[in-house]
Design a protein that fits this description.
13-stranded parallel beta sheet; 24 strands; 39% helix
Length: 816
């Protein structure tokens, strides 16, 4: 933007003020002044739009604007003379009136000449650019639909549903990235935010605000990706999600590490404050003023961009409000979700579509979700949806409630089980990625689904834009673990799930949920504890809990218990004794240290428990009085400390005689897998992943004669695989990738006649293959590095697919 653009706007504004004064005082110039006021009021918004558009004008246009700025400057000087001229000086007033008429004609010629030409040119360029963008989006949408159309639910070679869903997640991310170009409001917002954070050292804290689902986070992420912003801050940009229940100290340390340019657990007060290295801190989803005050570092060169539904005027110097989409932009975005193209198809009822779009009030999230919910539905469904939407009040100051009412319409056309699965998502903390393994287990137990049915529901919710699939770099096919894909959800949609789940009497609700972390259980629960709770799903989110912090409650129908907390110690609730039908127990510690669990006696009553998930826990040694958990099928230990407990509590065959799946992920202190694991005769899936200290595996692996899937990846200190693995008669999948010190495959690996796939990417020391591989008659796919791929290709199997692995593994989810 040239300086003239800014000056023209300021001159026009000042001239307008003086012309209004002239209409009240100077009789001879009133007519010209009124005409000029009309022209300037018409052109001033155009000048302001040029100022904030971020578009560099061509030389011809800039020269026209320069000449017009000179005209306005002369007009401002002339207006000043008119106001100063005495009424008795008739001759001078006549001269000034003549000059005012001349100024009026000059402005009129510009308005009716060059300005109209510029507007027409802009319209042409905008149409061309929009068509080009929508064509790109349409092509990507078609490719997504083709992939989803070919998705198969099944087993064996036809079971490609997980791979297709993963591809869909990748394409969806690209689609989302292009949506920011759809609205002029976003472009203006980007320009305004850049003006606030570049070259404005007088404002240390600025903001982006707007209602939920309006694109605040999208705008903030675009700012972080902008080359001009990255260059100005020399790539010293950190994006942090704060949320309603933040770990403030952890956030402060991460901010400090970025400012000081070093990793530190504390604050270095010897840091040279005068250096003033430019740093941009983006705080997304801020809810509390008290939290925000703790996260602001007022240091030279440090700029904080606050993204929130609230303005925080006492802290934020200036705030950019994200605008809702205009009518044509809203229609285009809605059509992309509902029809897969940028316009209304000729087969659709345009009037009905317009009425539905109008009810969305330009909110991007509402347009996407409602559009996707009505996709491929008959016209009667559309008419019914329009009627339901019309019953809500217009968006105003109570927009949050109105949004929930509108968003609830998008769930009305879901099958009952699909809708119930959506409502279950309210049981998890905001702004977290939910491991798919947890969701699948939860839905299988509470809704009587098969695993593949549960995953199909997940795909449907993703297709309806009610959730987002987040893929880890390792996910890809039927043998991929569920926890390699996670689910995220916009906070407005989570609010919707909570809103719908919390209807009716608290004792009769199907879900008993705590929306955010609190220091104790809700008082409403305590007031109603004299009657049993009918909830199937119970979700609790607190800090450390002691025995006295719990009060007695009865849950005769509870099947899932989710315990989210932050602390070093946690007393398991005594009311677990009153959960006779408990099937899934999920315990997740959100603090930075491992937590010690107390009151382990509750495990003695979990006779119906089928799934157990520990995260950031010191795995305890179970009491000797613990009875066999005959129904337990799955145990997952994630980011946990297992040294003193894994062989005395988890790998105890007589306690878990029917265990079929065991996962140990990111257990840094696991050095040796105890031999007792070979006594788990029903085990079908064993995953030991990202355990950097693992050195030894038990020699007697062959006793696991039901094992079908073995994952031992990301274990850099493991040097050998025991020969007993060659005695596994049902093994179909072996993953040893990223075992960088593994020197060779077992000599008799050819005995694994049912082995279908091997993943051995980044096994840097394996440079030869055993002769027995020619007997792997079922082997159809190998993933490896390029250096060893030729060895597999020379095996001579015509149906063997050798895939060269892509480099790099994304572990960003660990710090979310």
């Amino acid at each position: 933007m040239a300086p003239t653009d800014l000056f023209a706007g300021e001159i026009a504004t000042e001239l307008l003020k003086q012309l209004i004064t002239i209409t009240r005082k100077a009789c001879l110039c009133k007519s010209s002044a009124r005409s000029l006021i009309g022209y300037i009021e018409e052109i001033l918004p155009i000048i302001q739009e040029i100022k904030y558009s971020g578009v560099e004008l061509s030389a011809v246009r800039q020269s026209h604007l320069d000449r017009f700025s000179e005209t306005l400057r002369d007009g401002l000087e002339l207006a000043g003379k008119v106001l100063k001229s005495a009424r008795w000086n008739v001759y001078k007033n006549l001269q000034l009136a003549h000059k005012m008429e001349k100024l009026e004609k000059t402005v009129s010629r510009f308005m009716n000449g060059p300005l109209h030409a510029h507007v027409l040119a802009d319209v042409h360029h905008m149409r061309f650019e929009s068509t080009e963008r929508f064509d790109r989006l349409e092509n990507k949408t078609c490719r997504i639909e083709q992939r989803l159309g070919s998705m198969k639910i099944g087993v064996g070679d036809g079971a490609m549903w997980l791979q297709e869903a993963t591809i869909r997640a990748e394409e969806e991310e690209k689609f989302e990235g292009n949506l920011v170009d759809l609205g002029v409001g976003i472009a203006l917002g980007k320009k305004k935010v850049k003006e606030m954070i570049i070259g404005r050292d007088d404002m240390c804290t600025v903001g982006i605000c707007g209602i939920g689902g309006s694109g605040k986070t999208t705008l903030a992420r675009e700012i972080c990706r902008n080359n001009q912003v990255k260059s100005y801050y020399n790539n010293r940009i950190v994006f942090l999600t704060v949320s309603q229940s933040p770990n403030v100290e952890q956030l402060r340390q991460r901010i400090w590490a970025q400012i000081a340019g070093r990793n530190s657990n504390g604050y270095d007060f010897q840091f040279d404050w005068k250096i003033g290295v430019r740093t941009l801190i983006v705080l997304d989803d801020v809810w509390s003023l008290s939290v925000l005050e703790q996260l602001i570092f007022k240091l030279p060169g440090c700029k904080t961009l606050v993204v929130s539904r609230f303005k925080f005027p006492t802290i934020v110097s200036v705030c950019c409000e994200v605008e809702l989409l205009k009518e044509d932009e809203a229609m285009s975005l809605f059509c992309h979700s509902a029809f897969g193209q940028s316009t209304v198809p000729f087969t659709a009822n345009k009037s009905l579509v317009k009425q539905v779009v109008d009810e969305c009030k330009g909110l991007p999230l509402a347009l996407k979700v409602i559009g996707a919910s009505l996709k491929d539905q008959p016209q009667m469904f559309w008419a019914s949806a329009k009627t339901r939407l019309a019953k809500g009040e217009p968006i105003c100051e109570s927009h949050e409630t109105n949004l929930l009412k509108r968003m609830a319409t998008s769930t009305n056309y879901l099958h009952e089980k699909v809708r119930e699965c959506f409502l279950d998502l309210g049981a998890f903390p905001e702004d977290t990625r939910i491991p798919l393994d947890i969701l699948i287990n939860m839905w299988v137990e509470t809704h009587d689904l098969e695993e593949r049915e549960a995953f199909a529901i997940l795909v449907e919710l993703s297709n309806k834009n009610l959730i987002t699939l987040v893929k880890d770099a390792r996910a890809g096919d039927v043998y991929s673990s569920y926890y390699e894909i996670s689910v995220s959800q916009h906070d407005v949609l989570r609010d919707l799930a909570l809103h719908l789940s919390n209807q009716g009497n608290i004792n009769a609700r199907r879900r008993l949920l705590m929306p955010k972390r609190e220091i104790s259980l809700p008082r409403e629960w305590e007031r109603n504890m004299d009657q049993p709770f009918s909830a199937q799903v119970v979700s609790i989110h607190t800090g450390e809990m002691k025995e006295t912090d719990w009060f007695p409650m009865e849950f005769p129908k509870a099947e899932v218990l989710i315990l989210n907390f932050s602390g070093n110690e946690y007393w398991l609730p005594t009311f677990i004794h009153n959960m006779p039908n408990l099937r899934a127990l999920i315990i997740i510690n959100h603090s930075a240290t491992f937590a010690v669990l107390h009151n382990l006696e509750v495990f003695s009553n979990m006779t119906n428990l089928r799934s157990l998930w520990f995260e950031k826990i010191t795995v305890p040694e179970l009491p000797e009085t613990t009875i066999a958990l005959n129904n337990l099928r799955k145990i997952s230990l994630v980011l946990s400390k297992v040294t003193n407990g894994v062989d005395k509590s988890v790998i105890v065959p007589h306690l878990f005689p029917r265990l079929t799946e065991l996962t140990l992920d990111h257990c840094d202190d696991l050095v040796e897998l105890p031999p007792s694991i070979c006594g788990l005769h029903q085990l079908q899936i064993l995953s030991i992943t990202n355990c950097p200290s693992l050195r030894n595996l038990p020699m007697d692996f062959g006793r696991l004669n039901c094992l079908e899937i073995l994952r031992i990846y990301g274990c850099p200190t493991l040097k050998s695989i025991p020969s007993g693995i060659c005695e596994l008669p049902w093994l179909k999948y072996l993953d040893i990738s990223q075992c960088v010190n593994l020197e060779c495959l077992p000599d008799w690996i050819g005995q694994l006649r049912r082995l279908e796939k091997i993943d051995m990417r980044e096994c840097l020391k394996i440079r030869c293959l055993p002769n027995s591989i020619v007997f792997l008659e079922s082997l159809s796919r190998v993933i490896c590095d390029e250096e060893i791929s030729w060895l597999w290709k020379n095996v001579g199997k015509m149906d063997l697919c050798v895939q060269v692995a892509d480099e790099g593994v994304n572990l960003d989810w660990l710090i979310d």
